[in-house]
Design brief:
The chain has strands at about 1-5, 10-15, 20-25, 35-40, 45-50, 55-60, 65-70, 75-80, 90-100, 115, 120-124. The protein has no helices and eleven strands.
């Protein structure tokens, strides 16, 4: 089992920045990919960014150039630095971990473990 605990959400004005952090515990050696998903009201959960243990990353087109994912395998953490935030970034952000191997690209599917979610609200 893997437990994920997130922190760092909040309210920010458009153009501002926030940093989300996620710490993993439990059987963490089994984790292949870690990442962040988000879900806005009335919408499906979607990938924001994912990172493999080897440094490979994958970003949603909507956040490229604004968000940066960083993973520390030794510390079992994954952070998401969010800059130039827009109102459309408002959502609940979830940390995600996948213990299964990926074959084409990190973040190609949702992982099997989730954090509790943290709210990010961007005001216009």
């Amino acid at each position: 089992q893997v437990q994920l605990v997130e922190s760092g959400g909040g309210l920010v004005q458009a153009g501002g920045s926030l940093r989300l952090s996620c710490a993993a515990s439990g059987i963490t050696f089994s984790i292949n990919a870690m990442g962040w998903y988000r879900q806005a009201p009335g919408k499906e959960r979607e990938l924001v960014a994912a990172a493999g243990a080897g440094g490979d990353t994958n970003y949603a087109d909507s956040v490229k150039g604004r968000f940066t994912i960083s993973r520390d395998v030794a510390k079992k953490t994954v952070d998401l630095q969010m800059n130039s935030l827009k109102p459309e970034d408002t959502a609940v952000y979830y940390c995600n971990a996948d213990t299964r191997p990926y074959y084409v690209r990190v973040g190609e599917r949702m992982g099997d473990y989730w954090g509790q979610g943290t709210q990010v609200t961007v005001s216009s």
